[in-house]
Amino acid sequence: MRARVVYESMFGNTAAVAEAIATGLREHAEVEVLNVVCAAELPAQPVNLLIVGGPTHAFGLSRPRTRRTAAEQSDRPIATDIGVREWLDAALPVSPGRRAAAFGTTMAKPTWLPGSAARGIGKRLRRLGYSLADQPVDFVVEDTTGPLGSGELERARVWAARLAHTELDRIMHKA
Ligand SMILES: Cc1cc2nc3c(=O)[nH]c(=O)nc-3n(C[C@H](O)[C@H](O)[C@H](O)COP(=O)(O)O)c2cc1C
After folding, report:
1. 141 Cβ inside 6 Å of ligand 1
2. I need a surface site. Which of 17, 31, 37, 121 has the fewest CB within 10 A?
């Protein structure tokens, strides 16, 4: 089974979750992890499971404006022109039966705000024709720049291992 994780990350938290997801997937699948900037430059190769994630900005997926705001808070090089929103908006519809899942990062209480990039990504994946292997999942950061909440990387790994196991089971039973 082949899986691909595509993520966007301003301060490294969603990237760390993407790596933890890849570790979980590797229990059952061959996995590649791509920053969305790289994914946008590559031809779309079909995989058995596509997992897409990004940070929640202004109640949803980031936009060039919110990425510029993030860039002002970071010394890291941040791509402001392309994010998961733009990448998915430019993607071509897929044939029925293709599988995908969505994740995101959001802020923890007490600074909790409504909205979730994960849900927006899930909606866009479904619109492209994917069936979702699970409900979109949010992972929590303690503040805008992080760190991730305690146990979130392990939760990401376990979630992904379970997803990969279920998908592999589906493939085996179809064969
Ligand atoms: C411009 C901007 C807007 C944000 N808006 C929200 C929001 O609406 N809800 C929320 O939970 N977090 C919000 N955040 C916090 C991000 O969710 C947090 O920075 C992100 O999860 C960190 O992940 P990253 O290191 O991968 O970028 C915002 C952050 C920035 C920079």
Report:
1. yes
2. 37
Is the distance from the beta carbon of residue 59 to the nearest atom of ligand 1 less than 6 Å?
Answer: yes
Instruction: Please confirm whether the linkage preceding 110 is cis (ω < 30° from 0).
Output: yes
Q: How far apart are the first and last CA of the chain?
A: 13
Site to probe by mutation for ligand 1, drawn from 144, 152, 153 as the one with most ligand atoms within 8 Å of Cβ, is 144
* Separation of alpha carbons 25 and 2, rounded Å: 9
The tokens for 21 are 């997801």
Domain extent at residue 117: 2-174
Convert the pLDDT of each residue in 110-130 to its tens digit. 666 678 999 999 999 999 999
Q: How many CB atoms lie within 10 A of CB 82?
A: 18
44 lines ligand 1 (CB under 6 A): no
Look-up: residue for tokens 């691909």? 4
pLDDT (0 to 100) of residue 174: 81
* CATH number of the domain residue 118 falls in: 3.40.50.360
Q: Is the CB of 14 under 6 A from ligand 1?
A: yes
Task: State pTM to two decimals.
Answer: 0.97
CA 35-22-106 angle, to 5 degrees, is: 65
DSSP tag of 54: E
Pairing of strands 99-107, 137-141: parallel
| Count of residues making up the chain | 175
